Amino acid sequence: MTPILQHRTLSAAILDQLRKAILDGTYPAGTQLRQDALAATFKVSRIPIREALFQLDAEGLVRFVPQKGAIVSELSADEINDVFELRCLLEPRLLARSIPNLGRDDFTQFGTFHTQMVAATATQDLSRWGQLNADFHMALYGHAGQPRTLSIVHSLLQSSDRYTRVQLSDATGSGMDGMQRAMSEHTELIDLCRSGAIEKACAFLRQHIASVHEDLLRAIERGSREETP
Fold first, then answer.
1. Mind spelling out the 3-state secondary structure of the chain?
2. Architecture (CATH level 2) of domain 77-227
3. What is the model's pTM?
4. Would the pLDDT of 159 be above 90?
């Protein structure tokens, strides 16, 4: 392995671990991520740590604050609106271009995702469910032929995962309902894609994303009320 490739692989591995730690709550909102401490933890120089933090900043999971460095971003309605409004714009566009190119293997893969999500729901494995949900959406758009837009959507889905976990872990019990509704909507979306109903599929996808958006705003609002003395 060349030094450049080895460095990139190391940086990507650190990025994945830090992202997972933020998403699963190991590093909650407001946590300061000190580069020297992380470098010591991972037994690396500060260079791959800095690169990973810059990528997390681009994904909206951390923000850089003067005199403090990288801080895990707060959950906010403004961020949710930004992420989900962009998703509503970009994902239907990708889906419209991808549907004509979907084949038998793609629909087999969609079915596999559904089976795995059913299993994750049964065990309430939020981490696994969130990753499968993102992978399913990315697979839907895989034949769009727009790699730059797909890269942007991939980043948006990673940001969405953090908020979706808030919704799915909702103590009111609506989280389980949200999982089951999402899988039911995925099934309907797959059927529309299989039939080649591009306009209906895109409209349904937009509605699907908007529904999650509204649920998340309600979950954030409930959390704010519960925290208010």
1. CCHHHHHHHHHHHHHHHHHHHHHCCCCCCCCEECHHHHHHHHCCCHHHHHHHHHHHHHCCCEEEECCCEEEECCCCHHHHHHHHHHHHHHHHHHHHHHHHHCCHHHHHHHHHHHHHHHHHHHCCCHHHHHHHHHHHHHHHCCCCCCHHHHHHHHHHHHHHHHHHHHHHCCCCCHHHHHHHHHHHHHHHHHHHHHHCCHHHHHHHHHHHHHHHHHHHHHHHHHHHHHHCC
2. Up-down Bundle (1.20)
3. 0.77
4. no
